[in-house]
Amino acid sequence: MTEMKLDINIDKDTALGRYTNLALIAHTKNEFILDFALLQPQGGAIVVSRIITSPQHAKALLRSLAENIARYEEAFGPIPEPIAEGQA
Fold this sequence. Notes:
Elements: H1 12-16, E1 22-27, E2 32-39, E3 45-53, H2 55-76
Antiparallel strand pairs: 1-2, 2-3
């Protein structure tokens, strides 16, 4: 397989990123919609970023995220599962 080099540019505002602690996922036949939100302690959430992508790219993202989590856990140990409210 030939390795492809891809130059990626990012503007300063995007490079700062957005903190998120909640993801909402929906789909249609042709696309997946991923809303990343900030769940606030006083209640309510605000969407800080929305990604709309094809089913093929969503599946590739799932695979890539699983591979990266496995590598992270190999280096730093298991990531604990989140504790649901009411179980704490």
